[in-house]
Amino acid sequence: MIQSVPLMIVVVPFALLFGIVALEAGMDIAQVMGFSVLVLAGASQFTAVQLLSDHAPVLIVILSGLAVNLRMAMYSASLVPWLREATGSQKALIAYALIDQSYALSIQHYEKHPRLSLRQRLAYFAGVAVAMCVPWIVASWVGATVGQAIPEGIALDFAMPITFLAMIAPMLRTVAHLAACFVAIVAALALAGLPSGLGLLIAAPLGMATGAIVETWMERKGDGR
């Protein structure tokens, strides 16, 4: 849990900002809390709120949220070798609490300590999840209830880019990772002018496809094929 503190420093203002933005978008406190508790995915929550504010069609809102959260499928796949033997109920809880921060800290810890037992791995994930998810929910509530009292000069919007930079940068360790990141960024910027967040729907799978292609190519090259 102590290892979560650096990320918690940016998660809290990130959640405060969501509470404020969601309230300004017309949601009441119950809706804001339902969003944070049930969805529990900051980036897709911001995406959905922004699109709802822009009066985008519900289908576009749902598809955009799914596109943003496609990375969770990759997270899950990479955790399988470490948590494969967990029970069904344990996997359900892991799936619920699987966010960028809990994944990033857990996978790095597992790779650094490969001899951990399943119980130790689950305990570590649980500690990180509690340290990340509970502050997110509480800070979302604070943002929705007293966020309007926060001076406009305090720029909370710094939290989103810093959070993702802090998590992603240490994990860009292969050519495939860098290629996927580069293509996704370039595509997102090039398609930023498309309406209702459609650029994101295109950029996310383009980045994933690029990473998969480069990784396959590197494996074949390594095998001498």
Automatic annotation (TrEMBL):
Transmembrane intervals: 6-25, 122-143, 149-168, 175-194
Return the InterPro entries for the record: Brnchd-chn_aa_trnsp_permease
Task: Classify the source by domain of life.
Answer: Bacteria
Keyword entries, A-Z? Cell membrane, Membrane, Transmembrane, Transmembrane helix, Transport
Q: What is this protein called?
A: AzlC family ABC transporter permease
Q: Which Pfam families does the record associate with it?
A: AzlC
Q: Which family does it belong to?
A: Belongs to the AzlC family.
Q: Does the keyword Nucleotide-binding apply?
A: no
Q: Does the keyword Disulfide bond apply?
A: no
